[in-house]
Queue: 4 jobs
Job 1
Amino acid sequence: MKNQMIWFQILPLGFAGTAFLVFSLIQNRIVWEVPVFFFGQSILAFSLLEAVNYLEHYGMERKRLSSGLYEKVTPLHSWNASQSVSNFLLFQLQRHSDHHAYAFKPYQVLNHYEESPQLPAGYSAMILVAFFSSSLVCNDESKAG
């Protein structure tokens, strides 16, 4: 089978199933905690990935050229977060603009650009804002009416 997407679906399920069987045999009972933990952490990981992706691109637009194509991606087309904790925990993910402008660069050598838009806080704080701001806005609007 040459389709990687099928493998990306089969292998995690195979891993979770194997772990479930092994721990169930060792414990001599059905260890339901293994698949619950596996799929729970998968949902959390996917949610965090999408939240970071949302934060890095929120409000950024490239100009449409007269040819109908969009302008070349530059370091001005994505948000950076130059906070030390974000840098340490996320393998220089805060230098996201350089990644977009020069996709071939390994993450270890990504550069910081002063002219790139900067998030007002690190990824940890901004993820909380992304998850909870829409519910806060909805609550404020419902109180106003």
Job 2
Amino acid sequence: MKTGKRVLNILFAASVGLAAVPWAMADPEISSFAFVQQDGSLKVAGYLIHLYGIYIPPTEQACYTFIRPVPCGTRTALALDFKISGDFVHCIPRATNPDGSITASCRSGNEDLSAWMLQRGWAVTLPDAPVEYVTMERIAQSRDWYLGNPHRCHPA
């Protein structure tokens, strides 16, 4: 009798754990319109998502006056928002953070958003980032497209 109860407890705990991570039972992809937050994270389908493998340092505030209504925010958040430009974002969750947010690999169109941010110098790699991300960061730095450059030019 104790073994049967133990099995039921294990099954119940497993089902509760899976309910806490909805993509574990269904489609692993989170897809929807993305709303870029001031820190460069994304709000996608109600989830707060941080891009995998990168850190987006805080930058100064700016406004894009060539768009109406005029959006204002950090330069990095504006650059990411401009890249996404209303497209659906598709994210594959990689980890759940202690605060409940998700770290995910995200794409807009056919482009990896972490790679895009690194190639243009808007982000730096984290220690667990893939080697190709580290390479992209170094190339951007060699072209003076990195965040610390006061004369930063935006690549096309």
Job 3
Amino acid sequence: MSRVLMEYVGESNVLASDLREDSGFGRGGVNFLKCVPRVATTYSPDWIITNPPFDVAAAFIEKALSFTDNVAMLLKSQYWHAKSRIHLFERHPPSWVLPLTWRPAFLELERGTSPLMDVSWMVWRKGETETRFEPIRRPSAREMSRLSFDIPELSQLLG
């Protein structure tokens, strides 16, 4: 995810981290919920974009929105179906719900290439309070192999 963002906004504008020590990209061993990013003391990030652990996604959403008004979280597609999350939705309605029209293989090496989970991007943008829904088409194999591909939705959201 960070590599693609770097294609759009430049390497120096993306801070990549992961809870796993061995993620292979960015700074490993960073627990977003327990740390205070050094950058938060000097400036507010334009965006926080992540795929949080699903069991603590609500805490990730709340914390991210405390740093910036522009947040994108990759969550299970049925995330808002839980009664316990309705208050979070009412306090912070996402601007966009963008379901992927394919199932990404997040842990292909560990679990294989037959993923079972449907996911959606939930996006919050400053000043937008009406939730819109728009499915995202799967990029072609050619686009995926180039690493840098044009996603109109991403370009529009990062505006």
Job 4
Amino acid sequence: MSTQPDVSSTGRSATRWPATGAEQAFFLLRTVFTIAPIAFGLDKFTQVLVDWEMYLAPWINDLVPGSAHDAMMIVGVVEIVAGLLVAVRPRIGAYVVAAWLAGIIVNLLTLGDFYDVALRDFGLLVGALALGRLASDRAKR
């Protein structure tokens, strides 16, 4: 992220908010797509927010070894790794998150009860794709 160094009245170097709208959008999207997957991934282990197993379509549960709980542990690890990847390699991580969200959307649509959540996740998928485009443009500079 290109920021402009500034010197405060105390003489210390300070960092300004990114100068352009594209830099600000990149910063916001990168922050959200780092924190959210890590937070939701960690919650797969604690289930403080929700009982995640209710979101797992039976046909997917039949594909993965073990129980729905075991599947959610795997999901949690994948989400944590995806969030970390966005933090260190947003150009790649953004597309990993977008693909993961596409899988979640398919799961939710086939489950048949959570169309509202699937639509929300579609919006997140578009945001992840936007982050990927912004990250690609930054890499070209």
